[in-house]
Amino acid sequence: MTYRDIAEKLGCGVTVIAYYSRKLGLNKTRPRGHFKTAKALTAKYWATHTAREIAEMVGCNPANITHYKNLLGLTRTKEQEEAIKKRRYEKMVAKFKKNHARDKRRIIFGLEPISKVYLSLAPRHILQVGYNLHRKYGYEYTDDPYVMSRNGHSLEGKKYDESYYINKYGFKFID
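The structure assignment produced for this chain is given below.
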C-alpha cells in the first residue's frame, strides 16, 4: 500500500503519512526487483499503454516509467498514439454512459442524480426551444421542460404564436 493510498483512506495529505512513518521508524519498503520489473514492463507495454497504466501494473510512479522509457529510447508511432487515445476515450465514454443511465433511472424514480452532470428527460431540441422562448420572449421555466409560464408575456403578433409551439413541440403555456 502506498502513502497515497493510506492518505486517501485517512483523509489527509501524503506528506503527513510520510512524516509520521519516518517519526515512528516505519521504513517504506519496495518490492524486490522493482527496477527490473518496471523496466521490463515499460519495454513490453510502452507501445500500447500509457505511463500511468504501466505504473499501476508495477506499483510505482508514472514519472519512473517515463524515465525508463527515455533510458530505453522507446517511442510511439502516430498510429500507436491514436490507438491509445481511442481506447482511453472509449473507456471514458463507457463510464459516462453507465453513470448517465444510472442517473436517468434515479430521475425517473424521483431521486436526486449522483453525478453533477445536468440530466433532463426531454430531448435536446426541446430544451433549446424552451431556452429561446425564455431568452427572446421572457417566458419562465417550470419544473416540467414542456411547460412554460407566460409571466405576463405573449407571442401575439410574432412570426410563431403559441399554437405553433403547442402543435410542433407539445408545449403547454400557463399563466
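Interim note for the steering committee: The longest strand covers residues 147-149. The chain has a mean pLDDT of 85.
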